[in-house]
Design goal:
The protein is α/β, with parallel strands linked by helices and about 220 residues long. The protein has a single domain, classed as Glycerol-3-phosphate (1)-acyltransferase (3-Layer(aba) Sandwich), CATH 3.40.1130. It is built from seven helices and seven strands. The relative contact order is 0.20.
Length: about 220
């Protein structure tokens, strides 16, 4: 599918984005009853990479709800076929990815977004996982981290939105939580095949640690 894309210049100060973020926040926190069990630690300015597991098509909405920064998500091209949400995808500047193989055009666009000072959102598993187990992260996340040297922040999502098709995930109420972790130190790694593999491993380990934190919460923990 060839989708014509204009250069993206929207920022957090844009009124249309502020409206969309307020809508996403209300939907995530009330209708989908999502809460944060640890604060989001993304910087207030400058480039950053937010890396999360992938539970459903509403994951970007659930994560955006807890941060005022505009998060530009790398998203599978087939989601753009869902016309009712194209306006939202355009508003937040999603980067469309071809899942059939390594999409270097999408990688270059992601690098340009980071160079321009945006937050890049990445679901490093590459597809939705129906269980709480993490699929091995794709090495593209390690490549992005080391090529751009943008700070990397992990996140983990859990909840009843799992195993739902796209429309059902948006329209049917759910309940869940998100956890955010501190930035990772990858400064010692070189931009090499071994360095990319190690960066990918560290990033997945950080998301795994957040998963374990969620699973070990007591029933009375503040959400």
């Amino acid at each position: 599918m060839n989708v014509e894309r204009k250069a993206f210049t929207r920022r957090e100060s844009d009124a249309w984005f502020r409206f969309c973020r307020a809508w996403a926040g209300a939907l995530a926190r009330t209708y989908h009853e999502t809460s944060a069990i640890s604060p989001c630690q993304l910087p207030s300015t400058g480039p950053a990479i937010l890396v999360s597991n992938h539970t459903s098509s509403i994951d970007p909405l659930l994560l955006q709800a807890f941060r005022p920064r505009l998060i530009r998500w790398m998203m599978a091209k087939e989601y753009f076929d869902f016309k009712p949400l194209r306006w939202l995808f355009d508003t937040v500047g999603v980067i469309l990815v071809e899942r059939s193989g390594r999409d270097m055009a999408a990688t270059r666009e992601a690098m340009r977004a980071l160079e321009a000072g945006y937050v890049l959102g990445v679901f490093a598993e590459g597809k939705i996982e129906t269980t709480r187990e993490l699929i091995p992260f794709q090495s593209g996340i390690g490549l992005l981290a080391l090529k751009t040297r943008a700070p990397v922040f992990p996140a983990y999502i859990d909840g009843t939105q799992r195993n739902r098709e796209m429309v059902e995930a948006f329209l049917k109420p759910s309940s869940g939580s998100v956890a955010f972790g501190p930035g990772l130190d990858l400064a010692d790694l070189e931009d090499s095949r071994a360095g990319i593999d190690e960066a990918t491993r560290r990033i997945q380990s950080a998301v795994e640690a957040l998963k374990n934190m969620e699973l070990n919460r007591s029933p009375g923990s503040v959400r």
